[in-house]
# Entry
Amino acid sequence: MKKISLILLLLVAFQIKAEEEIDNIRKTAKTEFGFKVMKFDFVPHEYSSNDFSNASKKPLNGNSGTIYPFFLKYNDLSKKYGIEFDILSYNIANPDYNLQSASRNGINVTNIDFGNIRRDEFNLNYLHYYNPSQPTLFYFGLGIKKIDRLSQDRSNVFSYEEKINTIGLKIPLRSTIQLANNLNLNLAFDPYYTLGQRSYRDERAYNYIASDGMTYPYVRILLEDRTTFTQIHGFDSEVSLVYSFLENYKISLGYIYSKSHITLKNNSDKMFSYFGYGNNVYLNNIVNSMKTDHFRSIYLSVSYIF
# Structure
């Protein structure tokens, strides 16, 4: 009888201990799910890479919008690790700008427009809290970043499309500074490097009037180098004020700035051109230099912690 009582007491003790450990895990392990309302401005390389020595380039129009991405975070400070996942997708349709130049006849204004430009980014980060006494003051990790970029436009006389798909690594750097009770300042800086493939098409065909007053055809076709691979490297930076309320809720006001450089490697694209006047045929090498995308956003987010 005494042995049975002792066994029962040990079982009760183990049960109490197990429940305490589960409670401790629940206190240190937290999952956060939320949405952002982001007002963004996107300056694609199609605009930023066009420089004119004899003309004035005006600001780009139609390159802003509002998106509502979600994010998911998990961290366990007792085990010194965390996980982040988010998807960022944005699109601008038919952005344009004016190009002004001076001549003997006065000021000439040319409107230049692009078609549809879309960019999708997928981020998965593993974070390490290395400092047990102040785990969130500074922490870092290793992540995976995937970038899909699409630029396309077409009309009755031309068709253009460039698809880029890259994947690579990023190094997330984080800091959380407590400013007051329930109010924190969050800082993030994520340099990254990705590598992938590119699909490119550029075709134009129309008739033009030559100096003799006759109409002739013009044809231009890009001969894509299919061995080309694309490198996208840059950084994502973010600063935000985070206020915690009602125990399980957070509201944040933040600013994001991202800059990415796009470079073609092992590339030897050629442009075939035919001018009907004189039956002239040209085959020229295309020189591709580094191009840059810029992304800025102010956002408001709400999240729930469980």
